[in-house]
Amino acid sequence: MLSAILLVIWLYTALPLFYVLVSATKSNNDLFTSFGLWFTSDFRLFENIRGVFSFQGGIFSRWLLNTVVYATTAGIGAALFSTMAGYALAKYDFRGKRLVFAIILGAVMIPQTALVVPLFLLMSKVGMVNTPWAVILPSLVYPPGVFLMRVYADDAIPNELIDAGRVDGAGEFHIFFSLALRLLMPGFATVLILSFVATWNNYFLPLVVLSSAEYFPVTVGLAQWYASATVGSGGGAALFTLVLAGALISVLPVIIAFIVMQRFWQGGLGAGGVKA
Amino acid sequence: MAGLKSRKRRYRVSKGLAPYLFLAPFALLFIAFLIAPMAYAFNLAIYKTTVIAGTKFVGADNFVRALGDPKFWQGVVVLLKFAVIQIPGMVAVALLIALILDSGTVYAKSFFRISFFLPYAVPAVIATLIWGYLYGPAFGPFTQLANYLGLPPPNFLSKDAILPSIANIANWEYTGYQMIIYYAALQAIPQDLEEAASMDGANSFTYAIRVKLPLIAPMIVVTVIFSIIGSLQLFSEPYLLHNLAPLSITNSYTPNYYAYTLAFANQQYNYSAAISFVLGAVTAVISYAFMLIVNRGGRT
Amino acid sequence: MTNDMRREFIQAMLSRRQLLQAAGAAAAAMSGLASSALAEDKVELTMWAWTPNTQSEIDLFTKAFPNISVKLENAGQGPDEYVKLRNAIQAGTGLPDVGQVEFTNIPGFRQLQALLDMGQYGANDVKDKFIDWTWQSASDGEAVYGIPWDSGPMGILYRADVLENHKIEVPKTWAEFSSSSKALSKASPNTYLTNFGGTADGGWVIALLAQAGWKPFELDGTDLKLNLNDAIAKKWAAYWQDLIDANAVGIKTPVWTTDWFTGLDEGTYASWMTGAWGAVFIPQFAKKSNGHWRAAPLPQWEEGKTVSANLGGSTFAVFKTTKHPKEATQLAVFLGSNPEAGKMWSTKQFLFPVQKDLVADPELMGHKYDLYGGQAVNEVFVESAKHVDSSFQYAPFQDYLAGQVQQEISASIGGKGSLSDAFDRLQEGVSAYCSDQGYTVSQG
């Protein structure tokens, strides 16, 4: 019964993805002229994939690599810093704690559109634009992660454990890295995968701060291929099937990252076993 | 040997200093990459620069103008309607999925988890192609189905239907994201609680509703707050649909989209910054109101 | 040693030292000359362009100018690239030496004081190679801000089979176009002679208005005369409103959507009024309609005339921040005016040429396309290119204007009055915007 409900929701989720899959197997001439949700006799998936990797001198591989680097670095960094910050907010009482909360939450309320150009101008001053750091460093800041980890740390780490550690003579950092972090793993993994995908998906920031195609992430690259059909200023190339095939390929690393992170979602405090 | 031990002890951080040190990496990056640009943006908002007239200080003029701008408030109304339609449904479905996956009675959990999460990983430009097709009033699959069945074709992009259509896209994109968070939270609940509850005679459904949900309530509150903030900053979906449904979506459909148009199409950077800050203020009011309501109803 | 011998010795030493010094100085001078000569010759330029495979033309340039190396970047298509350019202008750094700038955006960047006057570096030498209006659109007397690259002279691409099935002649005037549209939609509901591009493409509207003689503004320093809702605009608006009211033109499907692509192939929209680049775009996605398309000149407001308009097209512009104005100008001039490069742009990237010689080249322009049933489509556009009005000016805020045109027209079609009202609102809105931007605005 429950499986049935899940299946229905799954169909809803999968339908648009199915469109991407089916479209990536078509030729451009078939794309808009055949039924969108089923295949045609002209099956071109492998050609399209080959096309994706060979177009423009194989820059897609570079884009894929860039995105993996940006997302992994930012994901791990954001998760680590968010966890440390969340832990501090959950398990310590210190002056300015409420203020810190208010500032972090308040800053999130200003939309990114307002901040990207000032960020660009500030980074320009220190010569950071058009480098990978221009994408990675801002992506290390993941405020939702701080709040999530605060709640998680509150629940998952009993104060007695910390006190016991202190009584034993362990330093604060030792307590965190050796004891608390292990308990925080599911949360840490969650924030990691969330910030990984957020960076993976980020379009606006790299669009503004990068001007060399060699640093683009896949989002900006695919958007550029897509736009090359519609700019109408000459040189228009209908690259839709390439874009769709590229999108299909670009979700694969996310799936892999997800599978890798999955094992961290087991267990809780004193669970007495792994929750399968 | 004794010397070594004492050296180790000297490096231990005091309890009072520790929280600041734990916060430091996040705080430094936060200040550099969020606060600094914000200050710059605020500076933009209190000046006015035109190519012809140069730069001059205008104080609160841009903010006053934003507060009186009908386009801004029309956008806020759109946002409120959107939040009301979109958030409850998304949270409910995400909780449902998370609880089902957590109940241990479903096969292929991994597969489902990844599938539900995938839409979040689809880049925005692809979403345009997908939904442009699915919503296509002339040749989309639902239109074709309707024609086949002899029914009038649905128009997902009409002025009345566009907001639910956008909400649908947002649901599709973010339900998996929410679900992952709830699932991880549910994982933290110790299994012996469940055993104890079943010994008390509670079935899994009651257990889920009466025990699990309240236990992860703080997490739910956090995600709802961020969903509210995210909804009030709605931009990508209307921006992408603008070219698909120009009769239903203007370039000031939401305040964030309006700010984008002002900056990037009109080069009115100063006013755009002011709109963003006023939007931020509106967001703050609504978010804090929500948190007050929640606090009054129980724990944080 | 005798005194004489000592004197001789010293003299010898001195002269040797002098010789050594002279030799040293000469050596230094020569190496300095050589290194400075080499330093002067080796120049590296950065160029931003979004056309595909641009490296081929760059390679041609590097062969002709081996001392100049060019780093090619694709910083984005059209608006994306312009956003980056404007950001870089604000930041003061990060601009390329040469960039692709469409005709419509030259005035905007000129106003930001970002463009180098290439006329001062010899650009005018190649002036006569270009079709007149293309050169005039990017220059101001002796000052040259853009070297024309490609253009989009307009024509009408139509489905010969659909027209034939309904016994419709290719419309030569707008009056014919109107009656044919109505006849077609009456005979076949859900088939339209064309799709109205104004809901999604302000530039399309502006181009057709230009064909009608629209002169929306006069800019004199900071004095701006705006004439957006003049008689010509109203005539144009009334014309299309008539078609919309008679349900004789497609308005439900914006251009560049999947529905629109399908519609073109299915014959739902029997024609597309567009620039020359459109002709090579259709074959890339069409299937069923292969062989059935044809090209013809734009319908005319006055019978017998041959007025055309331009939609699209770009130039090579040099930015003032360049450290090598001379070399950058050389690059721009070469890419735009070199016959071999021009030919390559035409055959490799399918850009419509702007060089007089190329346009007159029968082999280049006479290619017969399968999609068009063997018609040499480019010939239609060559003819069109000869009749583009060179006096039409783009505004320094052209992007904004195109966006507003699209907004107001969509608003009207969506129920907020007629197209004529849209132009009135446009006049009001743009006037307010221009005043806000510091211009002294008056109704022209």
Report on this model:
The complex is a heterotrimer of chains A (276), B (300) and C (444). Chain A has one domain: MetI-like (MetI-like fold). Helices cover 72% and strands 0% of the residues of chain A. Chain A has helices at residues 2-24, 28-31, 45-54, 59-91, 97-108, 112-125, 132-139, 143-156, 159-167, 172-201, 204-209, 218-230, 240-262. In chain A, helix 1 (2-24) runs antiparallel to helix 13 and helix 8 packs across helix 10 (172-201). The longest helix of chain A has 33 residues, at 59-91. The two termini of chain A are 20 Å apart. Chain B is mainly α and 300 residues long. Chain B has a domain at 70-127 and 165-297: MetI-like (MetI-like fold), CATH 1.10.3720.10. Chain B contains 13 helices and 2 strands. A two-stranded antiparallel sheet of chain B has the order 1-2. In chain B, helix 4 (70-102) crosses helix 8 and helix 8 (162-187) packs across helix 10 (204-232). Chain B is flat and about 75 Å long. Helix content of chain C is 47%, strand content 12%. Chain C has helices at residues 3-41, 55-64, 78-91, 106-111, 132-137, 160-165, 174-187, 202-212, 231-245, 258-266, 276-281, 325-337, 339-348, 356-359, 362-365, 377-385, 398-413, 419-436, and strands spanning 43-48, 68-73, 98-102, 139-140, 143-144, 147-148, 154-159, 217-220, 223-226, 271-275, 293-296, 314-318, 440-443. In chain C, helix 2 runs antiparallel to helix 13 (339-348). Chains in contact: A-B, A-C, B-C.
Number of strands of chain C: 13
What is the CA-atom radius of gyration of chain C, in angstroms?
A: 28 Å
CATH superfamily of one domain in chain B: MetI-like
Task: Quickly give the CATH architecture of the largest domain in chain C.
Answer: 3-Layer(aba) Sandwich
Beta fraction of chain B: under 5%
CATH topology of one domain in chain B: MetI-like fold
Mean pLDDT over the residues of chain C: 88
Low-confidence parts of chain B lasting 5 or more residues at pLDDT below 50? 1-8
Order of helices and strands of chain B: HHEEHHHHHHHHHHH
Counted up, domains of chain C total 2
What is the approximate shape of chain C? globular
Cα Rg of chain B: 25 Å
Strand order of the largest sheet of chain B: 1-2
Tally of DSSP helical segments of chain C: 18
- The chain-level structural class of chain C is alpha/beta
Task: Could you tell me the CATH topology label of the largest domain in chain C.
Answer: D-Maltodextrin-Binding Protein, domain 2
The count of β-strands of chain B is 2
Low-confidence stretches of chain C: 22-39
Query: Which outline of chain B best applies?
Result: flat
